[in-house]
Amino acid sequence: MPQNSVGMPDVKLTVTVNGASYTREVEPRLLLIHFLRDDLRLTGSHWGCDTSNCGACVVWLDELPVKSCTVLAAMADGHRVLTVEGLEKKGGLDPVQRGFEQCHGLQCGFCTPGMMLTARWLLDRNPDPSPAEIREALSGQICRCTGYENIVRSVLWASKHPAAGQAAADDEGTDQAADGVPA
Ligand code: FES
Ligand code: FES
Predict the structure, then answer these.
(1) Distance between CA atoms of 122 and 75, rounded to whole angstroms?
(2) CA–CA dist 119, 8 (Å, integer)
(3) 16-72 residue pLDDT tens
(4) CA of 109 relative to ligand 2 center, distance in Å
(5) CA angle 127-110-59, nearest 5°?
(6) What would the DSSP string read from start to end of 112-144?
(7) Domain span at residue 48?
(8) Could you give the CA distance from residue 36 to residue 80 in angstroms, rounded to a whole number?
(9) Sheet containing 20-26, strands listed edge to edge, beginning at the edge strand earlier in sequence
(10) N or C: which end of the chain has fewer CB within 10 A?
(11) pTM of the predicted protein model
């Protein structure tokens, strides 16, 4: 087995990412975020603080959002990973992606992939969350731009448009509902 720069044998892993299987030999110390970004070139997941604080690196490991800067790539062996690149299905955006588009849920966008993956996880378990429940679900993730208000509105929009997809992109989201979420 090949040796790496620190003289440790590489480890072989097979992981399913966004439905595609990948087998690679990687350094045992390699973090999942770097495996995704540097080995697989899936750069939608962002590397921010590297200290488990910001949540920019959130992806799903099987059915759970995880901060991928706290997970070794080798720990994903035999598991499924979902990144923001996998949210889109059959050419249609996920309703969460549509919500961020409709409600201006991002500014610089650095936090957005992680926010959307956690939002998807929340809506799969709680299709009609309150603003407080959305804020609690996203509480481990930091946004330095938006003040969070439009992120919450984006997730509320997605909860009210569970069938929203690409085809509906042109004809929704202009009217304001009483709660401030575009109708
Ligand atoms: Fe992982 Fe900030 S880069 S939590
Ligand atoms: Fe810039 Fe959230 S949109 S950090």
Answers:
(1) 24
(2) 38
(3) 999 999 999 999 999 999 999 999 999 999 999 989 999 999 999 999 999 999 999
(4) 5
(5) 50
(6) HHHHHHHHHHHHHH-SS--HHHHHHHTTT---S
(7) 11-85
(8) 12
(9) 20-26, 11-17, 80-82, 58-61, 64-67
(10) N
(11) 0.88
Tell me how far the alpha carbon of residue 112 lies from the centroid of ligand 2, in angstroms: 7
Question: Is 54 close to ligand 1, i.e. is its CB under 6 Å away?
Answer: yes
Q: Name the band, by pLDDT with cuts 50, 70 and 90, for residue 182.
A: low
Can you tell me the distance from the alpha carbon of 9 to that of 25, in angstroms, rounded to the nearest whole number? 9
Residue ranges with strand state E in the chain: 11-17, 20-26, 58-61, 64-67, 80-82
CATH code for the domain in which residue 125 is found? 1.10.150.120
pLDDT tier, 165 (very low <50, low <70, confident <90, very high otherwise) = confident
Structure-block tokens of residue 116: 């959307």
| Mutation test residue for ligand 2: of 118, 146, 155, the one with most atoms within 8 Å of CB | 146
Are residue 69 and residue 38 in the same domain, yes or no?
Answer: yes
Q: How far is ligand 1, taken at its centre, from the CA of residue 141, in Å?
A: 9
* Residue 58, ligand 1, Cβ within 6 A: no
Clarify whether residues 99 and 124 are in a common domain.
yes
